[in-house]
């Protein structure tokens, strides 16, 4: 009742506005939950939590995120799915929807299909009352290795048209382009510079953590979701393609993969290659962080740690399928390192894929889980701005060196850089010291002066 009076007054004052508002359906019980958050949270970083729709987002730790992004499969007609938007706004957070961009081959921005796509996105934004449009560009670039300059230009024109159409309704919308770990055709000719074109339309570039393996043409073996060496290389390529770090949002996965090995020699798990000499990733099974913790607590805590990739893994033998398996995942050490990288390289923020991966909703207070998940990245949001410049300078050099070493194929060099990075990061990182693996510490300290 109390709320009604002011809104009535407002309506009288701004009749036409209200009339328009009334026409777009708000699925929320409290109609105000369809409005964008008014309060500026004052965060300098973004933490986007992606949902895959499998858990109830209400129970998530909202203090540690700035936005919720729902999958493209969500349908506003579903009461439950629509409610995620109401919850997000009610918590004072921004709400985003994912839209797929799966054009392939020759792209014609004046074609019927392109015009329909622009219409569709504008309509989705309106129905969902979304503040963020996350355009998934990964399919376009992964299906279409042979796209050309004019296709990229056409694609950009579609995005520009989409943004302009939405801007007519509201000007608060941000477009987040979901991209792969390195820019399309990074190493090839300069005429293929997609990202340079896209800086007008992509407010954020979200690096998709699953793209590191999905878009892989290298030797076919099990590896972590985000190999640190590749991450630094990809970032430097984005920089040189005119995407500044402060637009980059690092996507980290809260899931891992169980790879079925054809052979396991040392710790190298080799997999089958299909005829195209690409890896056959159908032989891997996604494991959420929740599943790994629940099913394999022992392995989870007794895992090995790959220093070069800075990621944990463990091997096991399945006596039913008679194959060795290698499981790569993320733990507190590897995630903390990535969260710190966001701060040190002054990236814009972090995207968590997916919030649902923790699986459980009731146990967030449980020490182990709490330690390495939700609060870990909260540090970013409370990050103090001072001392950043020197840190950045150092990190810049480190990343440059890492890339140099990578190109030379000098594994040892990269190892030193990584060790250096770990050393450096450790200082920033006091709250997490207690759960770092003892053997990792020893290794670092012993070998650093080699
Ligand atoms: C959403 O669901 C409704 C009814 O269930 C259906 O008619 C509509 O086509 C769906 N929309 C999308 C975009 O799938
Ligand atoms: C693009 O589509 C429009 C409409 O279908 C057509 O008139 C035009 O010729 C197409 N352009 C190219 C380059 O194919
Ligand atoms: C690989 O190539 C062989 C011969 O060219 C063919 O018989 C086989 O079906 C192919 N396998 C796959 C997975 O495409
Ligand atoms: C989990 O641990 C059990 C018991 O050690 C083992 O039998 C099983 O293979 C493990 N599963 C995975 C996915 O690691
Ligand atoms: C072992 O392999 C069998 C057959 O593929 C599968 O059903 C089972 O889930 C596997 N066990 C584990 C622990 O992965």
From TrEMBL:
Coiled coil: none annotated. The chain crosses the membrane at residues 397-421. GO terms for molecular function: hydrolase activity, acting on glycosyl bonds. Residues 1-19 form the signal peptide. InterPro entries: GH, GH18_Domain-Containing. GO terms for biological process: oligosaccharide catabolic process. Keywords: Glycosidase, Hydrolase, Membrane, Signal, Transmembrane, Transmembrane helix. SUPFAM superfamilies: (Trans)glycosidases. PANTHER family: DI-N-ACETYLCHITOBIASE (PTHR46290). This is GH18 domain-containing protein. It comes from Candidula unifasciata.
